[in-house]
Amino acid sequence: MKRLLTLTLALGLFSFAALAQDQPAASQPSPSTEEQEKEKAEREKNAYRLLDQVIDEAQSLRLTENRVRIQINAADMLWDQNQGRARSLFSMAGESVAELGRTQVAELNRRGNQSRGPKFAPPNLRSFQLRQELVLTAARHDATLAYQLLAVTKPALPQTTDDPRTRAIASDESLEQSLLSRVAALDPKLAAQNAEQMLDKGQFPFSLPQVIGQLQRQDPDAANKLIDKVVKRLQATNLLTSPAAATLVQTMLVGGPRPPGEPAADSNAKQEPVRGWPAVLEQSAYVDLLSTAVDTALKATPAQNTQRAARPIMGRTNVGPQPQTDAQTEQNNA
Asked: For the whole model, what pTM was predicted?
């Protein structure tokens, strides 16, 4: 714990030193340009020397989580100065996260084989949180690297996946959607390709409006093709039985239609994004999708209550919640 606190303090000092490089002293006489450059180079040299010491010392940490977090933060700081070293640190962190995930799955399998009760104990969230931190940090610098880390750290499913929490740990859907939103600003074309792959797998990423908004600035034709595919896929899906599709419809509509002649929805546009969601649909596509949502909601009919009253069983009354029928689920969604 003392070593971890020392390393954390050292990382904080490095961040302060890096920030101080661009902060001129206000109370002292201004040195010459040459002296300023020398002082800046010396501060930078000392700061990176300190960071190297932190990285080396982190290898002796026994807890994988602490070592990985140091590697992730150091790689993030080193990216602009030494991209090769930063990539190596990201890769080392990825290997450790993958090993932690394999260990967790093996432990879940062991407990499941030994237990006569529930198949698994609640899964540990440490590897999932570390994986999310690693992938989203790398996505700030290199979209391709982030997707590589997403793939190499994907945990295997346990032998039995009755526990929905275990399924959630092994599922990439939530993390992939967060990554898609982060990558959209860095590499819109790559984000669009991955968004199409998610659509082909039957997924409806809620961050698609952000991807489309970024793509409209770089490649309007590609953005129009993606919009056409998204709208057609949503129109062909039963929104009452697919919460993800219904959520995507709302995020596509909440920004309103895109004003005619406006190239993209950004901070300089005449119409500001609503609740963070840009206006990406032209008038005709917007009306079509809105009409689909309204028509779908009006198709649902109230479900008749066919459930019987609870009957006493062995001196007790069965008062547990009854599962909803498909018709009741659709009515609620409508």
From this structure: 0.67
